[in-house]
Amino acid sequence: MPPNSIDLSPHIRYIRWQGGAGCWGYSMLAIWDIMNDLVCPFSPNLSLNLGLFLHIRRDLWEKEKCIMSPDGRYHIKKTDAGEEKWIEQSFGCTTEGTEITNPDLRWTGNWTYDGVNEACNYRLSKDITEIPLTVSEIQKWLINNHPVQIEDGPHVIAITGYNNSNSTFTFVNSYGDRYGNGGFGTYSYNDISKKTGIFGEKLGRAFIIDPIPPKPVPVARIRISTPIDGGRRLNINLWLSSEKSPQVKRKIWPPPHSMDSSRILHYTVRLPSEFVWPPSPENRLVLDLYDSGEYSETGGQIEEFIAVFGEHSISCKEITSGPISFKAREHRRFIIS
Amino acid sequence: MSIFASWIHGTSIKPQNEGYYISKTYKGYAAIFHTHGKEWFHFAIPTPVITDNKRVMVKKVFVFYKTELSSKIVSIHVYDGGIKIPDLQFNNLALTGDHSTNLDNANTWQIANKVEMKYGLGISIEVDFGKSSPTGVPGIWFTSAGADFEKP
Description:
Chain A is of the alpha+beta class. Chain A has three domains: 14-121, no CATH class; 129-208, Cathepsin B, Chain A (Alpha-Beta Complex), CATH 3.90.70; 219-336, Lipoxygenase-1, CATH 2.60.60. Helices cover 18% and strands 29% of the residues of chain A. In chain A, strands 1, 4, 5, 6, 7, 8 and 9 form a seven-stranded antiparallel sheet that branches. In chain A, strands 10, 13, 15, 16 and 17 form a five-stranded antiparallel sheet that branches. By secondary structure, chain B is an all-beta fold. Chain B has one domain (2-151): Jelly Rolls, CATH 2.60.120.260. Chain B has strands at residues 2-9, 14-15, 23-26, 31-34, 38-45, 50-51, 54-55, 57-68, 72-80, 83-90, 98-99, 108-116, 121-128, 139-151. Chain B is elongated and about 55 Å long. Chains A and B meet through loops of A and strand 3 of B. Chain B: InterPro entries: DUF6623 (IPR046731).
């Protein structure tokens, strides 16, 4: 007997904001984040930087039929047998916080050694698969831990659950967490059956993906919230570093988006590549936080800062006793040791 | 018949797969890895294959290591260049503990029929790290590796 409801939304914590375009990629990453979390909890959030860069520089992929990444690895679009492979199959996907952030560019598209080195851990096993757009088919895939990507007019979203009690499907959008209910919306079963869209007149196609289960990597998970009234996660600037490392601190947030109205950041990023697990008093992991006050004066609070590698986790002691507030234009430093 | 030994420090070891899913550090006393699942590591042992106009024969190989938590060595494969040495292939092992300072049965493998070396000795070690737990991530230390050779 199929379950009365399925809810995969607890497996997605980072609600993305797409800005002008990229809904197809952002919805796919939401699905991919969920599926990674189901098999490898605390996987870092995937980044669309590489995909967006190739969208802009399609000539690299289409004309040259390949990508030569800075580490010398060579990735072809078409094999000798004529098989076409997506970049997500051959090269993989980078994760958030590993690319250079350039405030002057909407999409940085900058290669980093960190990014190219990790991408092979996040790959799809095969091309995306189109499935029938019916209530029963979507339910079937959700029961098997496959969120479903749906074209809705000009937009694309990811369905993360269903509930027979009120005959609805829940989806996660890429309009930030002030859209709908914390970034989520619903379709009725009737909407799906009649293919009636919310963002356009008609629903289009439906897809699922098959990621290769990733290996665990050392990560930090951070949760920061700002007030409902006027709070903006874009005020928050975060740097992650290994205390004794001579490397430049890695800025992990924000990306170069200026219109994201979201108020909560619940983010999982890979630790600096030079950080040797585990954290200890002699090997401290440092999170620097600065509230710029650029968008509002509300300040916020940090609720979680935890370092995890597989099932081994170490929390920031200062925060475990409760959230810590900060004000606009305040710098705070948090340590895991 | 004379014997000579050739060793190399543990910091020379190479993991087969590079990636952030292997936490690695190299200290003066060992190369230390923490990760999950199975991974291969490789030592290249300095091998003077001909001395005094005679080809040497490998007699014993050694790997000095220390395991942490659920890690265990499950395979040892020994190569002469690109060729596996048949009598030095050990699988289905479950080697754990501290074998990083003294020779013992868990870090020494002897070949009954000595094999002439031609191209260079390689020792490959498969480690099954298992899964991490709330107390830590499984790891292994490699401090050294070597081999005894005989010269006829």
